[in-house]
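Field: sequence (string)
Field: structure_tokens (string)

Example rows 1 and 2, in order.
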Amino acid sequence: MSDRFSFRLIARDGAARLGEITTPHGRITTPAFMPVGTQAAMKAVLWRDVRESGAEIVLANTYHLMLRPGAERIAALGGLHAFSGWTGPILTDSGGFQVMSLAPLRSVDEKAVTFRSHIDGATVVLTPERAVEIQRLLGSDIAMQLDECIALPASPEDIARAMRLSLTWAERCKAVFDGSRGGALFGIVQGGDIDRLRIDSARALVGIGFHGYAIGGLAVGEPQAVMLRVIGEVVPHLPEDRPRYLMGVGTPDDLLESVARGIDMFDCVMPTRNGRHGMAFTRFGPINLRNARHGDDPRPLDEQSRCPAARDFSRAYLHHLVRANETLGAMLLSMVNLYYYQDLMRGARAAVAERRFGDFCAETRAGWAGGDLPPL
């Protein structure tokens, strides 16, 4: 693919894949979960703890960084890696999700997205070419095409229009992408919940030619069954020798189901966002530390966890921190969740290598179903 970016498929178990991505800033074993550091920072978690959790790549956001502190400023300070202190691979989202999430503040035409900055109200025009330029200035290892992401449910007409516009923008992004640094550009499959449009989008993107392919516009309001159906329709039309990235997903169960359908990469704010709101993901299933029953419980969250925060603090203390709105509570539970997601992916990779992925999923779900029992 390039002399510094490549993807190698190591093993398969059914549709589930074990692979390795090589980037200018290091290697990533897949399936991989990318913690989200939207503004070049992980909320309430140090990069040291992100690395120790097992994360090999993180995500940052083009839209937010172009507004503050600015792509040119980051470039002058040595690029996103030097600026933030994260030395591993970075994937940058192009701003397409903000086309949906900031809908009241933007307008879209064939040329560009025009935003009204949520910071100071200034008008900001983001073209496909500018989105690629910003990501070049940031120095990302994996850049994403600019696309239009729309919420579901939506009319077939709106879904088709957004898919066609995203393909036009994909061609423009590819035309200006300079791979001389060894980084990669991924195309994004759109088409909402309409299988025919998704397949058309995937085929057209493969015709344009990208280093990897993402499935966007899911986990935006549709049921899980619809998301999984779309993944199953799209994956057969994506190249075997390119990474497949499901954007913005999701719950631990979403990850297992998607790996089983051939997805290699994920990102989601859920581990840190839910941690900040008192929710811990564990091998017993999710645990809500706000619940009063934890107030007198001296047990750790999980004495077998690799995460120090899960082993070294009692549930009673974590409950107290959450109820008192102490920042430390958000920090510790975010760490717990980042470790859990990385351990889930670590287990999935080992299971694919051993051709026992189905058993791994069954064992993991049995742990969730067993639940978090109260102390004797």
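Row 2 begins here:
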Amino acid sequence: MPTIAHYHRPPDLDTAWQLLRDAGGSARLLAGGSDLVLRCPPEVDTLIDLSAAGLAGVTRRADGSLTIGAMTTFSDLLAAPAATDHLGGLLHDVLADFGSVLHRNQATVGGHVARARMSDLIPGLLAADAEVVVRTEDTRTRPLADHLAAPPGAHVLTELHLPAPPGPAAGAFTRFSRSAFDHALLNVAVVVHLDAGVVHTARVVIGETGVLGRRLPDAEAALTGKPPTPSAIDAAARAVVAGLDPRQDALASADYRRHLAGVGTRRCLQQVVARLGEVA
């Protein structure tokens, strides 16, 4: 990183924000650094290291919601039962095959979300209705989907919140790739909430289609208001295939990605039913 002339390690969030605000476009926040060291823009001459700002940790609130500090590493998240038990193991599904051990030891949740590209985690977070907390001149909380669609200007991402499910709920995640260390050709995350044995709400998110994560409302509607039976699962999978417009590249055709999306949706929903203790 030959352009870096200034390095700061602020002791708290207020100082980190002030440094970022005052430096303008010449500064970047340093979280895990696994991406920044490879792709540091040439105009950047200042690094603001967040490792001492008190932004790490995982907390399960009394209401069952989950708070994840932005500087929490993937290894620490995977080692936290509060996180890996949430929604029946959704985050464990995502993290168990996430990169290499060395990468999980270094990369942080906030840094990964902030880079906003090539992600297995973000579809899982979107399916869980995650919110982000960001610090600018004030502190604000907004849905992750809104944050990704219209990110604010200069800001420090401080936390992610995963709300408590409104009753029995479970999620599941799967990915398709050529090898364990490849970026996914496509991934699928699903969360289902039950009420009296029928689906109260459902989230079906497909990732790596050309966007980080896309909800499929028709697939969700195929599940909502019905028991999660094999026929409902098949209807949801068919709706995913019909509603998806994935990218085509040298690794996979659009048709193949549609096929994977249908397979992944069935697989995730069957796993969700098993986790909920229902008969599929």
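free_text_note (row 2): The chain is about 35% helix and 25% strand.
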